[in-house]
Write a structure and sequence with these properties.
8 strands, alpha/beta, TIM Barrel, magnesium, methyltransferase, 263 residues, binds 3-methyl-2-oxobutanoic acid, globular, binds 5,10-methenyl-6,7,8-trihydrofolic acid, eight-stranded parallel beta barrel, binds magnesium ion
Amino acid sequence: MTKKMTITSIKKSKGASKLVMITAYDALFARLLEPSCDIILVGDSLNMSFAGKGDTLSATLEQMIYHTNAVAQGAKSSFLICDMPFGTYINPDEALRNSIRVFQETTVDALKIEGGEDKAHIIEHLCSNGIAVCGHIGLLPQAVRSEGGYKVKGKSQEEQEQLIRDAKAVERAGAFCMVIEGVKADVAKEVAKSVSIPVIGIGAGKDVDGQVLVFSDMLGLFEEFTPKFVKKYMDGASLVKGAIKSYSDEVRSGEFPQDIHTY
Ligand SMILES: Nc1nc(=O)c2c([nH]1)NC[C@@H]1CN(c3ccc(C(=O)N[C@@H](CCC(=O)O)C(=O)O)cc3)CN21
Ligand SMILES: CC(C)C(=O)C(=O)O
Ligand SMILES: [Mg+2]
C-alpha cells in the first residue's frame, strides 16, 4: 500500500479488489501493519485487547482519541477509522458533538458506529455535517449485554431480511462502507450484493468486499481469545514468551549483557 486511500477509492474498490483492514492501537504496530493494509481501524476492541477489560462497553471517547493520535503518528499513509464508543451516539446531536471532537482532536479520516436501520438517522446527521461514516452491522459487540452474549446473525429468515434492510439503510444514510460481523457466509454474500458500497467482513465468510481482523488476534498475541473466525498468522504469544524467557535466563546466568552491549 503506497498511496493513501480516500472515500472515493474505497467506494471504487468494490468489485475490483478486496479491502484489507486491520486494527491498531499504537504507533508501533500501526507502523508495522501499514505497508500491507488499506485501512487501519482504531477499534473499541482496544478496551479488551489493550486495556484488558471483559467487553468494549467501558471504552471512552478520551481513550479512542488518545489511541487514534498514537496510531496516526505511526501510520501516515493509511486510511484511518476510529470506532465511536458505546454511549457516544445515543441521539443525532450527541453523536455529532462527539464526532466533531474526534475529528478536531485527531487526523482520523472516518468514524465507525454500530447499528443498521435503527442508526440510519444518526449516520445521516453525521454525513450531512462532514463526518465520513463507516457502518457496522450484524453482530454488534456494543450490544453484548442486551443480547446476552455474542450471537452470530443471519440464521433465521427474519434475521436475513433484517440484515439486508440494515445494509441498505446504512448505504442510503450516506455511509461510504460498512463492516459486517458474525454473519453466516451465504447471508453476508447476499448483503454485499445488495448494496453498492464495500462491505468488509469479520466472521462473515469470503464473499464480501474485504476483511478485517484485530491485529493481536491474527498475530496470536491475545491468547485467551480464540473464536472460530480468527486465523493466527503467527504464534505471537509463544514467540514473545520465549524471547522474554531467554532474556530472563541470560540475566540470571550472567550471559547478558556481553561486551558488545557495554559502554
Ligand atoms: N480481540 C478482539 N477481537 C475481536 O474480534 C473482537 C474484540 N476483541 N472485541 C470486540 C468484538 C467482540 N467480538 C467477538 C467476541 C466473541 C465472539 C464469540 O464468542 N463467538 C463465538 C460464536 C458465537 C455463536 O456461535 O453465536 C465463537 O465461538 O466463535 C465473537 C466476536 C469481535 N470483536
Ligand atoms: C472487530 C472490529 C470490526 C471492531 O469493531 C473493533 O476492533 O472494535
Ligand atoms: Mg468495534
